[in-house]
Amino acid sequence: MSARVHVAGVGMIPFTKPGRSSTYSEMGEHAARLALADAGVEYSLVEQAYVGYVYGDSTSGQAALYGLGQTGIPIINVNNNCSTGSSALWLAHQAVASGAVECALALGFEQMVPGALAAVYTDRPGPMSRLDQARFELQGNDEQAPMAAQFFGGAGEAYVDEFGIDPAVFAQISVKARKHAAHNPNAVFRDAVTVEEVLGSPRIYGPLTRLQCCPPTCGAAAAVICSAEFARAHGLSADVVIAAQSLTTDFATTFEARDMRKVIGYDMSAIAAKEVYEAAGIGPEDIRVVELHDCFTTNEFLTYESLGLTPAGTAEKFVLDGDNTYGGRVVTNPSGGLLSKGHPLGATGLAQCAELVWQLRGQAGARQVGGVDLALQHNLGLGGACVVTLYQKVDLR
C-alpha cells in the first residue's frame, strides 16, 4: 500500500536565454526557496532531495542546495536527458509514497549554452548510439541538421507518409504555443506568430522550421512533496496530490518496429499514460488540461495520440478543430510549453509540475483553465525515459 502524496509547494524562476542567467547554483537555490516558501516549510524539515540537471558536474545538486543550509540529508543527483526534472519528481514521489520519508524536495535546473544540443564526450561510445543507428537505418543522416531535429522531424514525416496530412498543420501548434505564452511571465518567447511566419522561418529538417523547434534556455523549478500526515501536522494547505505516476524506458518496439515514431518514444509515452489512467481509474476523456513535451511541434502532435487525447490518425482534426486550446476539449500547454519557455533540460519537468499545480489551485491568472480538478503531465527524454504524472485537486476538509 502506498500513501497519498501531496504537492505542498512549487516554485519556478523565469527562464532566460543562455548567457543571461544566473549561475546554475543560484538558479537552483532560488527555485528551491520559492517552492519551500510556497509550501510554508523550512528546509530543515526536508528529509531527502532529488536534484536533476543534464549538463553539469557531479554533486551540482549539493552546490545549489547548500545555499539553503547544510543539514546532512541525502541529496541525490539525477540525469535522465530531457525527462530529468520529472525523474527527480518521480524519485521524490516514490520516497514519500513508500513511507521512507515524510517530506522530500525535487529540484531541477540547467545552465545551457546557445545552439543545438551536442555530445559532450567524444572519446567514448555515446548512450544514444543504438537510437542513432536506428535513425540512420531508417532515414540516413543530415550533417547540416541538429541531431534532435532529425529524430523528431523524421517522426513527423513518418506520420505524414502514413496519413497523408498537410504538414503545415504542425505550424499551428507554434501559433497556439505563443498565444498561450503571452499570458506567462515565466516564458521567454511571448510574441505572437502567424502560420505564415512559422512556415517561412528557416527550414531545419523535414517538416520542421526554426519556429517549430524549442530553443535551449536557462532556468530552474522545484516542488516540495509530502505525506498527508506531514501536511496535517504542519498545517499545510496541500490540496493537490499526485494521483498516479509512471516512468517508462524504451521497449523492444523502439528498435524493432522500424518506425521513427517508435524511435522517439511513442510507446514509452503510450504505455506510461495507460498505466497512469488505469492506476487512477480514469480515462483520457477526463483530462481537460495537459502540459506535454513539445520539444518540437511534431512531438506535441504525436503525443496527442500517444496520450489518448484523440484517436490514432485524428491529430490533424484535433488541431484544426481547436480542441488543443481554450474553448476546445483539452488545453495543451497553457504555459506556452517548451516552444515558448524554451527547454532548460533539468528544469522542464518541474516547470510543467508548477504550471499544473497553479492550474489546479486556480492560480494561473489569464492562463487559467476553468473547472479542472485533474491535470496530466508528460515529460519525454530520448535515450530514453518518459514520465507521465496525474495531479488531482482534493478536498482536505
From TrEMBL:
Q: Which GO terms describe its molecular function?
A: acyltransferase activity, transferring groups other than amino-acyl groups; lipid binding
* CDD domains, A to Z: SCP-x_thiolase
Top-rank taxon: Bacteria
Q: Where does it localize? A: Peroxisome
Show where the Thiolase C-terminal domain sits.
259-383
Residues that span the membrane, as ranges: none
EC number(s) on record? Answer: 2.3.1.176
Task: Pinpoint the Thiolase N-terminal domain residues.
Answer: 7-193
Q: Name one Pfam family in it.
A: Thiolase_C_1
Name the enzyme's class: transferase
Q: Name one GO biological process term.
A: lipid transport
InterPro entries noted in UniProt: Thiolase, Thiolase-like, Thiolase_acyl_enz_int_AS, Thiolase_C_2, Thiolase_CS, Thiolase_N
Keyword Protease among record annotations: no
Q: Which PROSITE patterns match?
A: THIOLASE_1, THIOLASE_2
* Keywords (A to Z) from UniProt: Lipid transport, Lipid-binding, Peroxisome, Transferase, Transport
Write the protein's name: propanoyl-CoA C-acyltransferase
Species of provenance: Gordonia rubripertincta
